């Protein structure tokens, strides 16, 4: 699917591809991206709290409920 999306992007003369963020522990992924000419940039996560009740949750509860998802900075939690 990525290959097809890249071909489509080439046809539309796109010049950049956002591979998304990579953690330092993901050396294989990092090396793969570098082969495509990736450059290091700061990566930010932005979140908007729609329901303030989430601030009453515990970090472990959010991690269990939303695995592999970024919810909010845990220092914002009230507990």
Explained architecture:
With 79 residues, the chain is mainly α. The protein folds into 2 domains: 1-44, no CATH class; 45-79, no CATH class. It has helices spanning 2-11, 27-35, 59-65. It starts with a helix and ends in a 14-residue tail after the last helix. The model has no long low-confidence stretch (mean pLDDT 90).
Spans of at least 5 consecutive residues whose pLDDT stays below 50 are none
Structural class computed from helices and strand pairing: mainly alpha
Q: What is the average of the pLDDT values?
A: 90
Rg over CA atoms, rounded to whole Å, is 17 Å
Number of helical segments with 4 or more residues: 3
Domains (count): 2
Instruction: Note the beta-strand portion.
Output: under 5%
Residues in helices, as a percent range: 25-40%
Sheet having the most strands: none
The shape, in one word, is: elongated
Cα end-to-end separation: 42 Å
Element pattern in H and E: HHH
Q: Quick one: how many beta strands?
A: 0
């Amino acid at each position: 699917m990525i290959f097809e999306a890249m071909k489509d992007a080439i046809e539309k003369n796109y010049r950049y591809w956002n591979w998304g963020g990579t953690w330092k522990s993901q050396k294989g992924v990092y090396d793969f991206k570098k082969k495509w000419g990736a450059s290091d940039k700061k990566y930010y996560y932005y979140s908007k709290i729609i329901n303030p009740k989430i601030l009453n949750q515990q970090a472990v509860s959010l991690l269990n409920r939303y695995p592999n998802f970024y919810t909010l900075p845990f220092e914002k939690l009230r507990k």
